[in-house]
Amino acid sequence: MTSREDELLRRVEAIVAETRRDADRVAREDAVRDAARAAAARRGELGPDWQSVQRRIDAGQTTLAGVFGGADGSPAAVRLRDLSRARLDAVELPDGLTDELDALRGELP
């Protein structure tokens, strides 16, 4: 390997290491935020639908991805999904993102 190739490999390895550190940091932050949301849902602070969904998550019957991805067809999950979509619809998005969001919605069940 040439010194130029060695340098490029070191740069790539540094970028990969930094990306892993960032991903680990984001995962830790998400875990803290998810735990706080779950605790609030269990206490009923987020409303009855969240409390019902959280009970089902705790029982292993669903996941957040299932709720918001459409796999969970329970009435509470459907209402949370509908509310989330309504809130997203109300947000003014920059050009391009609206089209991308519409395309993603077209892929949902």
Please summarize what this structure is.
This protein has 109 residues and is mainly α. The protein contains five helices and no strands.
Which features does this protein show?
2 domains, about 110 residues, mainly alpha, about 0% strand
How would you sum up this structure, described in words?
The chain is mainly alpha-helical. It folds into 2 domains: 1-42; 48-109, no CATH class. The protein contains 5 helices and no strands. The chain has helices spanning 3-42, 48-58, 64-69, 75-90, 97-107. The protein is extended.
Secondary structure blueprint with pairings:
Elements: H1 3-42, H2 48-58, H3 64-69, H4 75-90, H5 97-107
Helix pairs in contact: 1-2, 2-4
Radius of gyration: 20 Å
Low-confidence stretches: none
Percent helix, as a range, is over 70%
Which range does the strand content fall in? under 5%
Please tell me the overall pLDDT.
92
